[in-house]
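Usage

Read records sequentially. Each one opens with the input sequence:
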Amino acid sequence: MIRLTELAHGGGCGCKLAPSVLQSLLSGQPAAAGFSQLLVGTETADDAAVWKVNDELAVIATTDFFMPMVDDPHDFGRIAATNAISDIYAMGGRPIMALAILGIPVTKLEPERVRAILAGGASVCAEAGIPVAGGHSIDSPEPIYGLAVIGLGHPDRIRRNSAARPGDAILLTKGIGVGIYSAAIKKAALPDGAYDEMIASTTLLNRIGAELAEEPAVHAVTDVTGFGVLGHGLEMARGSGLRLRIEAGAVPLLTHAAALAEAGFVTGASHRNWESYGASVALPPDLPDARRALLTDPQTSGGLMVACAPEAAEAVLARIRAAGYSLACRIGVAEAGEPGIAVT
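and closes with the structure output:
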């Protein structure tokens, strides 16, 4: 039986296009101007689109899909679904339904494994309290799965990635290292217990985002996915017109992430991330390459990056941890200055 990750010729990591590549592709595209009800579009690389229906209701829409990063089809479906739903939570909304996106090499992948992928995704949607109400499928050269997700929120409680304020504490809700674990999986070098740890993290719904949207002290939220801590932090910094100071040693890690990075288990996407946005990041001269790789490590279904008023940071952090995000940490601060990131 062929492994799912062997069918993913593009790398099987679900990596986003590098920010510079995406910016180039989008240049010259027509802007979504003239739609006063479009509260959030493409202007700040935010997590989802938001349409204001009335003063009490906004619709949030997103889509996400990728190729297998693990060989277990049920786990692949669970991770992909959790990752897609996360964008709704990151905007401060609550999901209401999903549509499945499925591409399958029908001559290479057995029907029972396709059913397992769909069942994995449906199980996460059920956990989130939403139906898979339909979708679309194609015969493709490699397996692809994900969701288009619709959510609802209050227009005044939408949390963008571009509303951080000077002095805000920067929090992170999940540990980093999913891309590094994925690289180790491909070489059968993942330590005992690490696979279960990765699955537990990547299938933990970011539902805390909807609760944080009710906190006036929480100013900005985004989820950390394919661009890593530095890339998504940079989006927040640029959108907010601020400089983020990130303490490298404070960033929470999966148990074996540091050791695996030091051993060289780093994805190509991590290097591409750095090449794409490294010019906007100031690093200490003595920062080890492995530590930089952790900060650029692409996360599939990663945690939320939260900017909140400094006086509320400990209370917000306690609320996040109490909700089941045990690795949540304060990792930095937003400061006035040239938009970018300074790592200490």
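Summary fields computed downstream for this record:
- The chain has a mean pLDDT of 92.
- The two ends are 47 Å apart (CA to CA).
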